[in-house]
Amino acid sequence: QQQVKQSPQSLIVQKGGISIINCAYENTAFDYFPWYQQFPGKGPALLIAIRPDVSEKKEGRFTISFNKSAKQFSLHIMDSQPGDSATYFCAASNNNQGGKLIFGQGTELSVKP
Amino acid sequence: DAGVTQSPTHLIKTRGQHVTLRCSPISGHKSVSWYQQVLGQGPQFIFQYYEKEERGRGNFPDRFSARQFPNYSSELNVNALLLGDSALYLCASSFRGRAEVKNIQYFGAGTRLSVL
Fold first, then answer.
1. Which of A9, A12, A34, A7 is nearest to A23 (CA)?
2. Average pLDDT over residues B103-111
3. Distance (Å) from the C-alpha of residue B40 to the closest C-alpha of chain A?
């Protein structure tokens, strides 16, 4: 029940294309869903986050789509750029468990010029 | 402002040894969490401390322990090291001890531990 499943494991997209990464969860008590971006040798950095009472959130080229009934959420990166090449992690948390984040397995994104 | 700082950057130990990893949170942040990231996987939660009290513990053996000091910095200790403890150890800080949209968790660059 604590798992967050992420797909695909790796993704190759052409420059200017749309990158889509999907996550699914089981625990309906989760109430916070962030996406993190990690470059080699660096720690994860927050990209965008959403609460379950919102179906979509957009910040620049990054959009989270959230489907509460399906227990799924996804990250869309519009106009993907080579600089977006990194590993992306979805995560989930239950506020009653403090700051504990449950991470997905990660998606390695490569944007080809 | 400095971000979350972790030391050392890299560490090589042998099986059975003990290790101490250190974390300084962003100034003003009162919560520190520790995660283990094995190569090719997502970070796994180890501990959370808020206002110097343990607020959460992940599914890790008692060989793992941590504490938070009055200045909100933190140490992660691992005893009797095993080969499987080789990983990147990440520290994250936030102002409050809650995971929510208005309380971002900021991660440090981590300590790369290799156990030989």
1. A7
2. 91
3. 8
Calpha distance A56→A45 (Å, rounded)? 20
Structure-block tokens of residue B64:
């793992």
Say which of B45, B109, B110 has its CB closest to residue A101.
B45
Q: What are the structure tokens assigned to A69, written together?
A: 């009934």
Min CA distance, B108 vs chain A (Å)? 5
The list of chain A residues with pLDDT below 50 reads none
Using the structure block, give the residue that is written with the tokens 């971000």. B3
State the smallest CA–CA distance between residue B111 and chain A in angstroms: 10
Interior angle at CA B100, CA B94 and CA A40, nearest 5 = 60
Rounded Cα–Cα distance for residues B89 and B86 (Å)? 9
CB contacts, 8 Å: A52 with chain B: none
The rounded distance, in Å, linking the Cα atoms of A55 and A88 is: 20
Which residue does chain A place closest to B31, by CA atoms? A99
DSSP state of B25: P
